[in-house]
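[User]
Um, tokens okay?
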Amino acid sequence: MAKLPKPLPSLGWLKPRMAVSRAVSLASFLALTVLLLVWNLMFADIPSKLLWVILAFQLAPLLLLAPGLIIGNARAHAWTCFVVNLYFIQGVLAAFDPSKALFGWVQALLSVSLFCAALMYTRWCFQYDRKLAGEN
């Protein structure tokens, strides 16, 4: 007995969810970027010679994804789901250091928020495109 494919949601159902998930992913992305900048520039005890190297290393993956996220590219959101796991791991590791606990938990929370919002945007965007193409 063959399993019937599940019908796609309507365009009216998908459109507002895409808008909300995109807004949440952009807000989380921006907040994560600002958190990394503020933490490294103001609170981290990093020698000045290494500061810009560490900032470049931490922000490079985010800056590579920024153009795609800003224009709403679903594939960029999908890649963000992979990349943001690095920031989640960094946040969880920092959360267990008493001197960086707040930074770590905020970074982990922002990473989870970005992951979930980008994942849902990717899913709903591809469903929207399939529905526009005439698939039921």
Notes: Residues 11-132 form one domain. The mean pLDDT is 94. The CA atoms of residues 97 and 104 lie 8 Å apart.
